[in-house]
Design brief:
CATH topology of the domain at 1-171 and 339-426: Spore Coat Polysaccharide Biosynthesis Protein SpsA, Chain A
Helix content: 40-55%
Order of helices and strands: EEHEEEHEHEHEHEHEEEHHHEHEHHHHH
CATH architecture of the domain at 1-171 and 339-426: Alpha-Beta Complex
Shape: globular
Structural class: alpha/beta
Number of strands: 14
Largest sheet: 5 strands, mixed
């Protein structure tokens, strides 16, 4: 259908430390609390008290600034990119992100990477505008893909499978779906093996391997920005979590009659076979969107008018973002656990450099960024505001939230990953 020949590797990245804002703090908190209440009422495994920004905040509740083990989340994410084969990195974020970045660049060896900062546009925080801001800071060839990712993935430091993927050459957009079965192959017989709790709203049937995947939207996006239409990028982003991705695709296709005609056989196949085929794997299921992998790849390629591919990710670090208080707590508990098990370097190859940043930069940052002046008090107030039943820090500022039973499993997994990574890069 398509004949393209892209560059075989990605060496440029746009990382977003920007996020949309609600009009008021009360609206943001209501959305977060209501969502968590619904999940609790429905018996969901992954409960999320979302960390949301608001326009009238005295202290910008920007999740990328949150401290994990006394170190800003942004530093973990930047460390992941520094370890990779990337050559150029564009950081999109707020004024306070720029302050942390400047300290990071003074303190941590960037291994020759070119790192640029671009201010977010508070008047237009849509994803597509963030992408455009990042793209404008890069010199990209028409046949070159760039890596786009949010900056809230603390331990996603093994990126080479994405940056050097053989499929880059013949596809302009690749979605690395997070598959529960790939990341946690033993979750059914050992629930504690699933050390990152998430709600998987997608069902994907890989007919070639005769396997059903419970899937979640991706957090990394290899994309050729010169080949993908801007409106569909925004549509896909807005519907990625609520399962309305099919409706978004149809609304786009209806405005393109020629594409709609080519899509009809794909859609007919989906509606005729998916529910029946799903029952071969699982008789009763609740999900928001389901698809056959091959069918979806073909349909999305027609919709986008460019070659598209979904792949399954097996690394839990790719799903382990920090969207909610529960996510932050998982990482805070994990890094606290490392203190008695060899330290941060046991779970992150740049652990020692991150601790150096903590020692050298954080005293000044506590004077420059209001959130850091008394972070433990800030978090305790946040927990109260979002109706959590406890506070994460005691009166002396010591972390006191109970560790989940999955923390030792998480430590063992990341420790083995770090050990393998260091052996392979020695």
């Amino acid at each position: 259908m398509f004949k393209i020949s892209n560059k075989p590797i990605i060496d440029k990245c746009i990382i977003s430390f920007s996020h949309n804002r609600y009009e008021t703090r009360s609206l943001a908190d209501k959305f977060s609390i209501d969502k968590a209440r619904r999940e609790i009422a429905q018996g969901k495994k992954g409960i999320s008290h979302l960390i949301l920004r608001a326009e009238n905040d005295e202290i910008d509740r920007l999740k990328f600034l949150f401290l994990i083990h006394g170190i800003p989340l942004i530093c973990y994410a930047l460390g992941n990119l520094i370890l990779s084969s990337l050559k150029e990195i564009v950081v999109v974020g707020s004024h306070e992100i720029k302050i942390v970045l400047d300290h990071f660049l003074k303190t941590v060896d960037t291994r020759g990477k070119k790192i640029q900062f671009v201010h977010e546009d508070l008047n237009n925080l849509m994803l597509i505008n963030t992408l455009v801001l990042g793209r404008n800071a890069l010199s990209l060839a028409p046949n070159e893909l760039v890596l786009f990712q949010p900056g809230d993935l603390p331990l996603m430091y093994d990126l080479e499978k994405v940056l050097c993927d053989p499929d880059l050459k013949h596809h302009n957009l690749i979605l690395w779906l997070n598959s529960r079965q790939e990341m946690f192959p033993h979750f059914q017989e050992d629930p504690d093996a699933e050390f990152i709790q998430r709600n998987y709203h997608y069902r994907v049937i890989d007919q070639k391997k005769n396997r059903l995947h419970d899937a979640k939207e991706p957090n990394v996006y290899p994309i050729n920005l010169s080949a993908i239409e801007e409106d569909i990028i925004e549509l896909l982003h807005q519907t990625r979590k609520d399962g309305k991705i099919l409706n978004a695709g149809l609304s786009k296709a209806l405005r393109q009659p020629a594409r709609m005609l080519r899509l009809l056989p794909i859609l007919a196949n989906h509606f005729r076979h998916f529910e029946t085929d799903l029952k071969k794997f699982r008789l009763n299921d609740s999900y928001k969107f389901g698809m056959h992998l091959k069918n979806f790849n073909q349909g999305a390629s027609i919709l986008l008018d460019t070659p598209f591919l979904c792949k399954f990710n097996e690394d839990p670090a790719y799903v382990g973002d920090v969207d909610a208080l529960e996510d932050w707590e998982d990482y805070e508990s994990l890094t606290q656990y490392t203190e008695s098990h060899g330290g941060l370097s046991q779970i992150h190859p740049l652990g020692d450099a991150l601790l150096k940043f903590k020692e050298q930069a954080m005293p000044q940052l506590r004077q420059q960024i209001p959130m850091y002046a008394d972070f433990s008090d800030y978090m305790n107030r946040l927990y109260r505001d979002l109706e959590m039943n406890y506070e994460p820090f005691d009166a002396a500022g010591n972390y006191c939230a109970p560790h989940a039973a999955t923390v030792p499993n998480a430590f063992r997994w990341y420790h083995q990953k770090t050990k393998r990574y260091l052996e392979n890069t020695a």
